[in-house]
Every structure is written in C-alpha cells, then in structure tokens.
Amino acid sequence: MATVTETPTGGMADSAHLARVTFRIRRFNPESSEHAFWQDFTLDIDPKERVLDALHQIKWEEDGTLTFRRSCAHGICGSDAMRINGKNRLACKTLIKDIADLDGGPKAKPVVIEPLKGMTVQKDLIVDMEPFFQAYRDVMPFLITTGNQPSREHRQSAEQRERFDDTTKCILCAACTGACPVFWNDGQYFGPAAIVNAHRFIFDSRDEGAEQRLEILNDRDGVWRCRTIFNCTDACPRGIEVTKAIQEVKQALITRRF
Amino acid sequence: MAIEISEVAKGDEGGRRYGPDNPAPVIEPPRARTHRTPRTTRTNFELYGWLFMRVSGVLLVVLVITHLVIQLVLDGGVSKVSFAFVAGRWASPFWQVWDLLMLWLAMLHGGNGLRTIINDYAQRDTTRFWLKMLLYVATVFTVLLGTLVIFTFDPNIS
Lengths: 258, 158
Hints:
- The complex is a heterodimer.
- Chain A has 10 helices and 7 strands.
- By secondary structure, chain A is an alpha+beta fold.
- Chain A is elongated, with a radius of gyration of 23 Å.
- By secondary structure, chain B is mostly helical.
- Chain B has a domain at 46-152: Fumarate reductase/succinate dehydrogenase, transmembrane subunit (3 helical TM bundles of succinate and fumarate reductases, Up-down Bundle).
- Chain B has 4 helices and no strands.
- The longest helix of chain B is centred in the middle third of the chain and has 29 residues, at 45-73.
- Mean pLDDT of chain B is 83; it is low at 1-13.
C-alpha cells in the first residue's frame, strides 16, 4: 500500500540521467589501524559530474570520515590532485563519464581513487606535501635582481614573456612530482614541479638569479636524475610540457659550460 | 555496500585508542630533506656523466657493430676466431687502440648506467653504498685487467 503513494513516473524522470558507478577508495586512518584498505562506495550519480562531486556525495551522504583536500574545486588551487584509475589527475577537472565504466552490471570496473604516490599518506587521500614544497623553496621561486630599487617597472617584450609562458601555468598540485618514478624511490630528487618553477625564473629576462638556480639544479639530485620518461607531462592537469622544460634547463646548463 | 574496517585500533598501547592524548606515531617521509642530508657538492660531475653517456653511446654504436661484424660475420664467421686470429689483429696498433677504446668506453658507460640504476632503485643508504662499492671494484678490475692484456699480449706464448 505504501508504494502507491510514491510517484513512479516522476521518480523515473528525475533519475533517468543517473548512472550507478562504484568508487573504490584507498582508505587509511593511523588512529584506527596501521594498515590501509580499499573501500567501495556505489553511488547513483550524473556521469557528467566530476570525481570531486562523487567524493563530496560520499563524504556528505555516506561516510563523513572520508578525508581529502580541496579548496576552490575548479582546477586552480591545485589541492585535489590524486591518483584516479592509475593516473594522477585533479578530481575537480575529471568528469566521471570520461573515466568510469558506465555499462553497469556486476562486472563494471570501479573507479579507483588513491592518494598521490611517493609522499607519505597522512589520512585517506591526504599526503604530506612538505618534501614537495621543500624542493620548491630550494629553487628560490621568486624574482632576484641586483642594484637599486627600481623607479619604474621592469620592461619585457612579448617574445621575452613567451619564452617562459608555459611554465607560468603551474598550480603546484604535485601531480607531476607524484607521477615521477625517480621521486617515488628517492625523495631527494627535486622533482618535475620544482624544476618547472625554476625554469619559470631562469628564462625570465627580468630575473638575475638564473646562475644560482642553475647551480642548484646542476647538483647530484638536480635535473641530471631526470630519465625523460614523460610521466610528468602526461600527468600535468594544466598541459605544461614538463619534460621539455626540464630538457631546456639541461640544455642551458650544457651551453653555459661549453 | 561499504567494507567494514577489519582491524580496529591495532597497534595502540595499553588497550587505549590513538587520540589527542595518545597520538599515533609520526611517520617520517622516506629520505626527507633533513639536517643530515648531504650538502650540495657544487661540481659538474653529474653534468659530465650525463654528457659522457651520450657521446660514448654514439661512439660505441660504431665501435661495437664493426667489432661484431669482423668477429662474427666476415671470413667464415665465428669459427675463424682463434688465438692466431686475435694475435694477428693485435699485431696492428690500430686494432689495439680500437679494442682499448671499446673496453674503456663500454665499461665506463655500463658502470655509470648501473650507478644510475643503483641510485634510483636502492632504498637503504647502506645497500646503496655497498652495491656501488661492488660496482666500482668490478669496473676498475675489468678495465685494468683488459688494458694489461692488450698491452702485454705475447703472440709467442707457449
């Protein structure tokens, strides 16, 4: 009798665009267990939504203990980089329809979500970003000039600006560094993101600290540990040609020497 | 729908859960930058190593392929290679220098490649150190022994 009061036609129309998708999330809580484990959440969700919306739905409606970073939720702040179906992406820029198995049924593959590799997991999808930012600080990511305080702006031509335009797009999400196998094994390596941000100043015509930055990146854990496997370029959610930037720094080091 | 947490509060001390008064142990990131991290060396060693790999690789393509063709393909192939054949080739200083160059370049190229792989893959500092020591000893031994043989080769040995 109770079913009569429901509105079958209206309900169908409301949920016709929804798809049933399973999200398999790597959970870790050091305060309850020292072991990480996988947890499946099956949601009815619009496949045109983003993975971040699915995470919100899980956190707000299913399990409030699910922990992840996000700030702007629109691909600018770089907080929600994570490993989705084995590739580092921003959860807020990845549409569910692009990565999920929407055929449905019991054999449908789940969307697998893990924290970034190569950094210590603190809880669920949150990793310790300190080594990443340490490498970033080490390349001195700020304008270095000499002489008196300028009385007018630093002039720069459009061509000079274009030289380092690609590397200004970095949002420090760590998707590239978290995709680098050299960084996975040895956190002493600067990682692609730090080199990209050094590149941004090394090739800036207004900056005078290129020599110091090149000297830092010429060291044991600098650009020479890059194996040019292009994981970073694949991972970058801003489409920066990361490996090319690293190669340009190598080239600058060699032409400086010879 | 959701898998239950199989192990609850494992590793807690005295039966107490981790919490604000009993915090979980801090997990140090592997090989983080600490005050014990080695200082920068300020040398161009890695630059020269990187360049050497490219230059020696190109040279080795020519040296090794020519070597293989002479040894294995021309004049009846591998069956002709004997003591007399080697003695005949090393009578000429050209082939002595050729083989010497090939030995040094191949050993240093391979040694530097293995050093890179050890640096990338050995996780513990002591493992890394001893693997590299083994590699350096093996490389120096092979290079010196090969050089010795090329220069002191005696075709009339009985």
